[in-house]
């Protein structure tokens, strides 16, 4: 895939009306609008210890039942889906509000992973997935005495 850089402004584009380009640049570069156009995925921390890999995924407002964790070959996929529907009936009208949240994150696993030793826990808005390492991948630490 090649990345092509396009210039921000074309030559002589401000000659016709310099205010038009500034107006549209301000609208499309506004963080309020651009934040709504970008799909949100939760932030992830990945750490390696002597015996395991730890994946921490920030996903507040969800429940344990909203998460789905799949392991396929050397890929671990963490996804969540939450649907909420509330309805209020008041006099002659009905008001309904829908909320739909979903995301999917995938990570490749190294060869040193023990696939039988994967655990997940959801505490205080953070999903913690612990992926154990194989015994031969765990490096034994020892003190070497200098003679």
Summary keywords:
four-stranded antiparallel sheet; three-stranded antiparallel sheet; single chain; 147 residues; mainly beta
What is the gist of this entry?
InterPro entries: A-crystallin/Hsp20_dom, HSP20-like_chaperone, Small_HSP. With 147 residues, the protein is mainly β. It has a single domain, classed as Immunoglobulin-like (Sandwich), CATH 2.60.40.790.
SSE layout:
Blueprint: H1 18-28, H2 31-37, E1 44-48, E2 52-58, E3 67-72, E4 75-90, E5 93-108, E6 113-123, E7 126-133
Question: Would you kindly provide a written description of the structure presented here, covering whatever features stand out?
Answer:
By secondary structure, the protein is mainly β. The protein has one domain (19-137): Immunoglobulin-like. Helices cover 12% and strands 47% of the residues. A four-stranded antiparallel sheet has the order 1-2-7-6, with no helix packed on it. A hairpin with a 2-residue loop joins β4 and β5 (93-108). The radius of gyration is 25 Å and the shape is elongated. The termini are far apart.
